[in-house]
Amino acid sequence: MRQYREGSHAVAEIVRLCKAQVISAYPITPQTHIVESLAQMVADGELNAEFINVESEHSAASVVQGASATGVRTYTATTSQGLLYMIEVLYSIAGLRLPVVLTCANRAVSSPINIWNDHQDSVTVRDAGWLQFYAENNQEACDLHLMAYRLAEDHEIMLPVMVCMDGYILTHAYEVVDLPEQSQVDKFLPDFKPVHCLNPDKPISMGVLMGPESYTETRYAIHQTMMDALNVIPGIADEFEQVFGRKVNCLIEKYRLEDATQVFVAMGSMVGTIKEMVDGLREDGQKVGLLKVIAHRPFPKKIVYEALKNAREIAVLEKAISLGEEGPLLSDVKSAFCGYGNQPKISGFVLGLGGRDITKKSIFEVQGALAGSQVDVKFIDLKI
Amino acid sequence: MIIPVTSKPRTSKANKTGTWRSGKKPHFIQKECIACRLCVMVCPEGCISGDKRCTYIADYKYCKGCGNCVAVCPVADIEMVKEEWWRETIS
Question: How far off is chain B from A68, nearest CA to CA, in Å?
Answer without folding.
Answer: 14
